[in-house]
């Protein structure tokens, strides 16, 4: 498509054995087939502005529970501009979903249909040779298609000041404002005041860290406070093996509109065993404190082991095993889940 853009045809053909497709206390297993045709445009290869746009159609068919069958779409684009003094990252996406998660599950053994919209733009400009200011705007909307769930709109504005303390490490101070609008529930506003650092902490350790105080103020009356954490790191264990880990602590909302405090520890390892083989694993532990009326604490574990075989530059094959478990004081909220999956992926 000219000198600066390429068009790719993409597709995935997958099969998974899922012993709890709805993440219910009473398991319901099924064999699930998935076909995902689409395309991707990569643009700006020879310019300061570059990025990609994509479209996918996800066709999901259940062997035994055909009432869960869906055909859903997703579309989006992302990109960046960088002339060294000014950096801009932007993205937009829209996705139709029919799946459950640890805090988005109906009690009738079906899947949760919803539309998810995300818009974001973040820019960073140099103020002096050793300092810069970054600011952005993010809009997130979750529109549930079931009356039992609470649709939400979130508007976030982060502002951070960075100061260079070494050629590869910056310190930071920042504030993040977040406005939460909920349908048929109490709205709120969040404020995250932080200090932190980003860049290369050692020759093998890179990442970012922001620590501070997060306040949630409910419209009308009432407020909550918590230690706020936003961190992610990467460690180069060897030329072929990398390790990722991080900790976050922030407020959120469940699918029913109940306020939450979420503390999450996550980690992962990826290793290129050979020229055409990559193996990896990820593990996350999340403590969910449901606040206000009907308060409770859930402990959630999610882990995945995977392997990818690259057949050629157009085709690769993946296999994975995923384990999920939620422990709760409420009997109907506890569950466990095992998923074995294989897939063939094409990008031509």
Brief description of this entry?
With 348 residues, the protein is mainly β.
CATH topology: Porin
Query: Total number of helical segments?
Result: 0
| End-to-end gap | 14 Å
Question: CATH first level: which class?
Answer: Mainly Beta
Rg, nearest Å: 22 Å
Instruction: Tell how many strands the DSSP assignment holds.
Output: 18
Order of helices and strands: EEEEEEEEEEEEEEEEEE
Provide the number of structural domains. Answer: 1
Ranges with pLDDT <50 over ≥5 residues?
none
- Average pLDDT level: 95
* Backbone shape: globular
Largest sheet properties: 18 strands, antiparallel, barrel
What does this entry look like structurally?
The chain has 348 residues and is mainly β. It has a single domain, classed as Porin. Helix content is 0%, strand content 72%. It contains no helices and 18 strands. The protein has an 18-stranded antiparallel barrel.
Keywords:
18 strands; 348 residues; 0% helix; 18-stranded antiparallel beta barrel; mainly beta; single chain; Porin
């Amino acid at each position: 498509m000219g000198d600066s853009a390429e068009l790719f045809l993409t597709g995935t053909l997958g099969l998974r054995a899922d012993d709890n497709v709805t993440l219910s206390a009473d398991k319901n297993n099924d064999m699930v087939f998935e076909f995902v045709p689409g395309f991707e445009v990569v643009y700006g290869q020879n310019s300061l502005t570059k990025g990609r746009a994509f479209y996918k159609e996800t066709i999901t068919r259940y062997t035994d529970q055909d009432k869960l069958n869906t055909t859903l779409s997703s579309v989006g684009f992302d990109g960046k501009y960088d002339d060294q003094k000014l950096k801009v990252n932007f993205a937009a996406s829209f996705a139709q979903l029919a799946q459950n998660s640890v805090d988005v599950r109906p009690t009738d053994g079906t899947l949760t249909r919803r539309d998810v919209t995300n818009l974001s733009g973040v820019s960073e400009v140099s103020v002096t040779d050793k300092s810069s200011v970054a600011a952005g705007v993010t809009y997130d909307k979750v529109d549930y298609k079931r009356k039992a769930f609470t649709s939400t709109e979130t508007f976030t504005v982060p502002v951070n000041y960075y100061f260079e303390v070494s050629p590869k490490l910056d310190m930071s101070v920042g504030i993040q404002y977040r406005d939460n609008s909920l349908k048929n529930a109490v709205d709120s506003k969040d404020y995250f005041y932080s200090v932190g650092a980003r860049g290369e902490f050692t020759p093998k350790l890179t990442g970012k860290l922001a620590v501070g105080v997060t306040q949630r103020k409910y419209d009308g009356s009432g407020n909550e406070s918590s230690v706020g954490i936003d961190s992610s790191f990467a460690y180069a264990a060897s030329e072929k093996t990398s390790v990722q880990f991080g900790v976050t602590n922030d407020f959120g909302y469940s699918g029913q509109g109940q306020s939450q405090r979420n503390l999450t520890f996550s980690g992962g390892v990826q290793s290129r065993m050979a020229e055409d083989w990559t193996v990896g694993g990820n593990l996350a532990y999340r403590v969910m404190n449901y606040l206000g009326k009907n308060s409770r604490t859930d402990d959630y574990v999610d882990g995945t082991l995977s392997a990818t075989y690259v057949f050629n530059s157009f085709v690769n094959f993946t296999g994975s095993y995923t384990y999920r478990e939620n422990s709760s004081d409420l009997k109907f909220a506890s569950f466990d889940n095992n998923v074995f999956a294989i897939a063939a992926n094409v990008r031509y």
